C-alpha cells in the first residue's frame, strides 16, 4: 500500500513547492535565466543521487540504457516550466492555473491512453470529462 501512496504524496508536495516557487519568480527576471539556474540545480542534485545509488563501474552501463524519452522529456519539462512562468505573469492565480491545466491534461490523457496504449474509455470517464468541462467553465467564469 505504501508503495502506491508515497509517490503521490511526493507529487503533491513537490507540485505545491513548484507552484509557490513559480508564482514567486520575479517578473523582471529572464524566464530562461531562471530556468537555467533551476536546471543546473536539478542536474547537480540528480548527478549526486545517481552517483550515490549506482556503483562507479556501472555508471556508463546505466547511462547506456537511456533512450530518446529522456531528451523529449527534457524538452517537455522546459515547455511546462515556461508555460507556468508566463501563465503566472499573465495574471493566472496560483489557486486556479494548476487546476485548469491539470483538468485539461486529464481530459487529453484519457484519449492519449486510448489511442497510444489501447486503454478503454468508460462511461464513467466520459462522465468525468463532462464534469471536468463544467468545472472548467465554472472556474473561469469568475
From TrEMBL:
Pfam family, one: EamA
InterPro entries listed in its UniProt record: EamA_dom
Membrane-traversing stretches: 6-22, 34-54, 66-87, 99-117, 123-141
Keyword Transmembrane helix: yes
Assigned keywords, A-Z: Membrane, Transmembrane, Transmembrane helix
One GO term describing the cellular component: membrane
Domain EamA: 8-141
Entry superkingdom: Archaea
Protein name: EamA domain-containing protein
Native organism: Methanobrevibacter ruminantium (strain ATCC 35063 / DSM 1093 / JCM 13430 / OCM 146 / M1) (Methanobacterium ruminantium)
